[in-house]
Every structure is written in structure tokens, then in C-alpha cells.
Amino acid sequence: MLDKTTSKKYFLRDDEQEYAFLSDANAPKKNRYGNSIELIEETNKLAGKSLNINGDSSVSANPDRYKQHGFYFNADNCISCHACESACSEKNDLPPHLAYRAVGYVEGGSYPSYTRLNISMACNHCDDPVCLKGCPTRAYTKFAEYGAVLQDPDICFGCGYCTWVCPYNAPQLDMTKGHVHKCNMCVDRLEQGLKPACTSACLAGALDFGVTETTPENRQQLKTQIPGFPTPEITKPNIRFQQTNSLPNEMKRTDSVPLKYRRDGTAGEFEAELDTSKADTNKYWNLKKLLSSHENAHIIFTLTSQSVIGAFMLLMFGADIGLASLTNSFVNSFIPVMATLLIIFSIGMVKLNLHLGKPQRFYRGFNNWRLSPLSREIAGVTLFFMGFAGFALFAGLSQYGLFTTVELFSFNVLNVVTTISAAIAVLGGVVGLYYMIKLYLIPARPYWNHWQTATSFISTALVFGAVSIAVISSIATATLDSSLVSQTALVALAGLVLEGIGLLAHARDLKKHKGEGAVSHFEQTTRYGKSYWLRNGLLLINMIALAVIAVLGLNGLSGVLIGLVLFSSLVVSAVISRALFYVLVIPTTMPGAFFWRNKGFQEHARETGLAEMQQVGVLPGHH
Fold first, then answer.
1. Contact 489, 549 (CB under 8 A)
2. What is the three-class DSSP state of 192?
3. Can you tell me whether residue 235 is helix, strand or coil?
4. pLDDT by residue (tens digit) across 579-610?
5. DSSP secondary structure letters along 442-469
6. In 400-451, which ranges are continuous DSSP H helix?
7. Are the CB atoms for 618 and 606 separated by under 8 Å?
8. At CA 432, angle to CA 365 and CA 312, rounded to 5?
9. Global pTM?
């Protein structure tokens, strides 16, 4: 079913031009990825089903209806007229700030022999659509008809995870409507035997469409890569390129991403690498941009949820690993500790839910638990919260002598329910934290796709799990237990050491990365350089302070003051570190243009007020 707000039923016109019709295809059995081009068995084709496009129950007689289709782009011909963009936007009635198809470019050479390579890109309706696997609401479906990957905005609740995992920036998160929508391959036109609107509108014959692996008229090449195009290994996209014109050995982007593409001397293909010639090498704080990103809700949620999960695990298993003081402090100040942790966790959950485009549909996040790591994380975290809340209630009743005599089959019911609640919380915490890490290991976002993500999240659980117990317990009892302080310092120190090891390895590997990962590292040492080194300095100072406290402890008023300063330092370091984690990620998107899909221009438009002009195509708030 197509979205009625973004797709109109297309009726075949009497004067439809010949170039707009689909061509007969003589396709091979397999595509270059080894997958079948036939998407349904021959015997099942007779029972063709209608796509029910806006209530139309008819079934197309297209003989290639159940074959994988895709786009063909001839870079030699593209003149960057943007007719394909305009036709797509008109067909789908899109607002100025969104486009399913966009034209970007890279440039190279020197005057007077300067070369531009244009690239027109939309959804590639991949063989392995990561958007479908990632979406927690199951808003995506890959249809046997034409191999189209369709998305239903009515199901989507606007988390935007599909925009993270897609290497091509195909799904578009519309913040004004609170949901994602994307290219639908114009399946209504295909049902009429017509090519998509973008290909029919192409003036220069650069864009074509048909059964994948077939060669359109006047084409010789069916390449899967072109300068600026992310690796096809991530999703196995159904787009093929032709590019025969001579290009310089180095091509640069014109958007704000400091990347260039250099020809490999042996393979002849272009590889991405950092372009320092267009980047500012000075170091800045940029605290305003760092702490006011669109992902602030994720900063709050990850820090709070990981801290509470860590605290609960330490309370449950602390005594078993020699941390009896942490467990004892929990017993001595049960209500303040549990109540505060529940409040902290709830704040993170509420903040994250309100971050959704349609927060009232939060329950749909469980829909795709079989495929989506995000859906599994939601399920795990929810399970943890339910178990944790149940444990707090039932253990509290037991501790304060309420209903302790209720028995069933010689078992104390309250003890059994408390144990079950604790087990549920432990299971949910492990599952939730594991998939909280897993969902960020995205090939399309190299900065996140590193084991340092795991060390960072586990470090937060250790550091703030232990520290939160100590701080709440000390305030509740108005005492500074030396044993508790020492054990807390040891756990927090272990967490910071783990964080430091991960950060060192992360920086080393990003430097070796030739593409977007190298850009991320460059920006963290320049654009956010002072904030980055502040985080690193605080990390080292906090390690030294925790090591000293673990040995000497804290006593008296001076100990309280030192503890407050250290706690503040830990919080500042954690917030900066997590904010850097979100703001520095550079996705493997297609090159933009000077104005369109250029992060630098978007920031300029918002700062100068240009974004208030609708025709500029930039929302005043964050996309």
C-alpha cells in the first residue's frame, strides 16, 4: 500500500511518449550478487496479487512484474539539470525540504581543464535492505513485485533509525510530519508499464530504469561503483553505473564533508580519503553545537539507562565479586537508592520517547524484534524496567516486614516473586545493554562501527552504576563509609581504564581509515578539538583521583567536597564524551551539492535566517 499523501494513482495518458515505457528485458537468472532476479516461482505468477494502490485492485500484465528492477545512471550524460528531482518531487507532492532523489557532484582537475562528475541518487531498492532489517515498527516491506522496497509512513513512529543504517540517505525523516517516507519506485507507474517519473523526465538520457543486470539502450557498462558512491557490499543495491569519460586522479566533494576520492593505481577504482585542503585545522570548543544536537535525547537516555543497569547489576552481584560494601549500602538505604534509580531511568525513557516523531505510537517499537537490533533493545530495556520496578516493590515489602507470611505450597510467595522480578531485570539488562551496543555497529557509520562503542557503554554502566549507589547511599545515611568509597572508586577506575583503552584504539583505527572515519577523527581534533582534549584531560585526572581515593578513601568535610568535585568532573566528562559520540559521526552518504544536502549550508541557513524562507529547502529547526 502506498502512502496516500505522497503517491498519487497514475493513469496512462493517450499521448504517453515511447521513451516513458518500460522495455522488454532479457535478463539473466542471477545478478552479480548471486541472487535470483526472478523474485517468485513461475507457477505462482498466475495468482498475481494486486498492490492495492490507493484502493485500485487491478493487477498489471507486465511480464517482468516479478523480476528485480533497478536504476541505471550514465554519469557521462548527466548535465545536473535536476529534472529528475523536480519530477520526483512533483509526482510525490514533496515539501521543499525533502527530496527522494537528489543530484550531487564531485569535481577535479585544474583550470581550464576542470571536470565535474554528477551523481543522481534515490533509493536503490537493495537486495539486502538494511532499512527493512533495522526498522523497529516493520514499516518496510520488500515486495516480490519489481523488487521494490516500500515504506508505510502510517506505521512509522519517527525514530529515524532507518536513516542511520542506510548508506545512501534514501529514507527521509520529515520532522514536520513526524515520520519517514522515501522513494517507492513509482510502482503505480510500473503497473501501467511506465518507467518511474524521474527516469522519464531525464533530459540527457542519463537516468534509466529496468530489470537489473540488463543493458539499456546506448549503454555499455553496468558498474556497481562510481566516485563518491559508498561500497555496495553493505546492502547490495540495485543500481548500475556507466562512466567512461576520462577523470582526474583526484575528485573532491563540494559539500562541507572534507572528503576526496583518489584513483587506486592498481585497481583503477576511486577510494575515499580525508581532504585536509578544504578543512579548518584550528581547534575550537563548539560547545553550543556539541550540546544542542538533535540527538540530545539519546545522550540522556544512554547515560541514564546504562548507569541504572550497571547499578542494579552491582547490587545483585557485588557481594559475589568482593564488593560487599556496595550491596550493604543498598540494604541500608533501600528506598532512597531504588526510588532514585527508578526516577533516573524513567527520565531517560520519557526523554527518548518524546524524541520520536510520533511518541504516542511508542508501542510499535516491539514489532520487529526478529530482525531489528533497535526493537530488541527496546524489548530488553522495557523488560529490565518492569523487572527492576517489580523487584523494588516486592523486595521493599519484604524488607519492611509486610506480607512476609503469605505462603503457597510451602514457598514464601513474596520471596519467589522478588526473585523472579530480579531475574527478569537481570535478563532484560543484559539483553538491553547488548543490543544498545549492537544497534550502533552500523557499517554506514564508521565512527560508531567499532568495538569502542561497547567499551564506552560498559564503562558508563560501571562508573555511574557504582558512583550512583555511593552518592545516593551517602546522602541517605548522611555518612561517608570508607569501605564503600574505596570499592566504588575501584569499580569506577576499572570503568575509566576500559574507556581509555577503547578511546586509544578508536583514535588509532580512525586515523588508518581512509573514508568517513578519518573525517570523524579529524573533526574531533579540530572542529571540536578543545572539547575533545578537555574530555581526555578529565578522563586522565579522574583516573588518578579514583586511584588515590581507592587507596586513601575520603573522610570528613574535605572528603565530601573532594567527592562532589570528582562527581562533577565525571559527569562533565561523560556528557562531553557521549555528545562527541553523536555529533562526530559522518555517514557514508552520497556527495551533496553546494546548497542541497550540504550540512554546512544548512547550518549557515539556520544561523543567518535563510531557513525561514521555505524555498531554501532547510527547516529552521534540525532535520
1. yes
2. coil
3. coil
4. 999 999 999 888 888 887 888 888 888 888 88
5. -TT-TTTSSTHHHHHHHHHHHHHHHHHH
6. 413-438
7. yes
8. 130
9. 0.90
**Grid coordinates standing for 302?**
544512554
Question: For position 44, what pLDDT does the model report?
Answer: 66
Rounded alpha-carbon distances, angstroms, from residue 211 to 77, 170, 253, 439, 467: 21, 20, 31, 33, 59
Task: Return the amino acid letter for 373.
Answer: P
Domain ranges of the chain: 19-248, 249-279, 287-355+440-583, 595-623
At 565 the pLDDT is 95
Cβ partners under 8 Å of residue 234, min gap 6: 128, 130, 167, 443, 444, 588
Which among 265, 288, 263 has a CA at the least distance from the CA of 273? 263
One-letter identity of residue 259: L
Q: Which residues are bridge partners to 240 per DSSP?
A: 72
| Three cell numbers, residue 61 | 500484465
What is the tens place of the pLDDT at every residue in 8-63? Answer: 455 677 777 778 888 877 888 999 999 999 988 765 665 678 887 777 777 887 88
* Under 8 Å between Cβ of 304 and 344: yes
Residues in the chain: 623
Strand pairing report for 207-211 and 239-242: unpaired
Rounded CA separation 448/454 (Å): 10
Residue pointed to by grid coordinates 530489470:
211
3-state DSSP call for residue 172?
A: strand
Cα–Cα distance for residue pair 464/304, rounded to 1 Å: 9
∠ CA 507-512-517 to the nearest 5 degrees? 65
Rounded-to-integer distance, Cα 479 and Cα 173, Å: 51
Judge whether residue 187 has pLDDT over 80: yes
Query: What fold, for 19-248?
Result: Alpha-Beta Plaits (3.30.70)
Whether the bond between 112 and the residue before it is cis, its omega within 30 degrees of 0, is yes
263-301 burial, b at 16+ Cβ within 10 Å, e below that, comes to beeeeeebebbbbeeebeeeeeebeeebeeeebebbbbb
- d(CA 581, CA 505) in angstroms, rounded, equals 15
